Amino acid sequence: MQDAVIKEKKRYLEFLSSRKVRVSRGRLTVFDMVMRTHGHFTGEEMAKKCFTLKPSVSRATVYRSIHELLEAGIIRETAFGDKHHHYEHLYDEKKHHHAICVRCHQYTEFPDLDEDKRYHAILEKKGFQIIGHEMHFYGLCQKCRDK
């Protein structure tokens, strides 16, 4: 797993270099915190974690770095139907989707079955370049159904 993180860091540094963006301590701190965070996180959760560090990282740097990590393909954004964007890193994740309980907001992950491949040919014929996809199911979890 350590090799995967090193590979992702190299990719992030190359991304920053290609954009002629300075590699700052703050950016690297955010990268490290994201790689240590397993599961989903919001920008605000990451900002709170980074602010408690010594030296701390500003909220603006955290959000800017998250955007860069997203553009570099190191994390992905997922929407759970609430007001906040959620993210997860990709280096040790198998492709998956989410089912979200509309009552308690718990989510369940389930494997991706490559169903998107059916749509590639259709969308490419229309000139659309696919860079990713998401699938979410909304409903009630077992606990909420039993209440």
Please give the structural blueprint.
Blueprint: H1 2-18, H2 25-36, E1 41-42, H3 43-51, H4 59-71, E2 75-79, E3 85-89, E4 96-101, E5 107-111, H5 117-125, E6 136-139, H6 142-146
Parallel strand pairs: 4-6
Antiparallel strand pairs: 1-3, 2-3, 4-5
Helix pairs in contact: 2-4, 3-4
* Widest β-sheet, arrangement of strands: 1-3-2
The level-1 CATH class of the largest domain: Mainly Alpha
The share of residues in helices is 40-55%
Taking the sheet with the most strands, its summary is:
3 strands, antiparallel
N to C succession of SSEs: HHEHHEEEEHEH
For the record, the CATH architecture of the largest domain stands as: Orthogonal Bundle
Radius of gyration: 17 Å
- The CATH H-level superfamily of the largest domain is Winged helix-like DNA-binding domain superfamily/Winged helix DNA-binding domain
Low-confidence stretches: none
Please, how many helices? 6
**Termini Cα gap:** 41 Å
Helix-strand category = alpha+beta
Description:
By secondary structure, the chain is α+β, with helices and mostly antiparallel strands. The protein folds into 2 domains: 2-89, Winged helix-like DNA-binding domain superfamily/Winged helix DNA-binding domain (Arc Repressor Mutant, subunit A); 96-146, Dna Ligase, domain 1 (2-Layer Sandwich). Helix content is 44%, strand content 18%. It is built from 6 helices and 6 strands; from the N terminus they run H-H-E-H-H-E-E-E-E-H-E-H. A hairpin with a 5-residue loop joins strand 4 and strand 5. Helix 2 (25-36) packs across helix 4 and helix 3 crosses helix 4 (59-71). The model has no long low-confidence stretch (mean pLDDT 86).
